[in-house]
Amino acid sequence: MRKILLLALSVATLAAAGCATAPRADYSQLRQEDPHSILVIPATNKSVDVNVPDYFLATISQPLADRGYYVFPVNMVRSVMADDGLSDADMVHASDPRRLGQLFGADAIMYISIERWEAKYVVLSTKVTVELDYTLKSAKTGSVLWTNHQVMVYQPQASNAGLAGLIVDAITAAVTKAAPNYMPLAQKANLQAVGLKQSGLPAGPHNSEYRKDSADF
Asked: Which three-class secondary structure state does DSSP give residue 104?
């Protein structure tokens, strides 16, 4: 009886821990620096698709702009960096943030690492996953101002329509694996990363909530 009670208490403790609210991010240094402009540098890529960073960069500027920050045009940034000998994303991430800030006149630098960008076939369905790491660094000091991590998964539910349904599911899964649509997942990841209360970015100077959202961020 004692063992059963202890097991029940352990399960209850794990359930409570799983339901616990994520801790609020520390925004003290970010608010002290008060960046107005963000330079998004080319993302590093740990996936097997070499074209992923180009696809991804098209999704990140608008969410940051909607939060009220000036975002340097990503294609212009890439061109200027290439002219300055910084064409490799890993090399850019390893360089001094202060050098990048001086090169563009930016207040902060956004570093993004594409951890996963994959589609896996799993029993008549295809599981599409996008995993991203975000880090915002000061262009003045090089210190980290904010971080975030997002994992987005899309896996269609199998139908219950007998043999015909299984055939449809198999065809759908094959098509999804052959040409998976990652963009909605990337867009959702960006929106959650920068927009969620207590973990996203506080409103920037071009947002009406600027300096009014301290209760949420």
From this structure: helix
Question: Among positive and negative, which fits the CA dihedral 156, 160, 166, 167?
Answer: negative
List the chain pLDDT tens, one digit each, 217 residues. 443 333 333 333 333 333 444 578 899 999 999 999 999 999 999 998 888 998 899 899 999 999 999 999 998 998 999 898 888 999 999 999 999 999 999 999 999 999 999 888 765 567 889 999 999 999 999 999 999 999 999 876 554 554 444 444 444 444 444 445 788 999 999 999 999 999 999 999 999 999 999 999 9
Length of the chain: 217
Domains of the chain: 24-195 (3.40.50.10610)
The residues, any chain, with a CB within 8 Å of residue 120's CB and separated by 6 or more, are 126, 127, 129, 177
Helix (H, G, I), strand (E, B) or coil at 133: strand
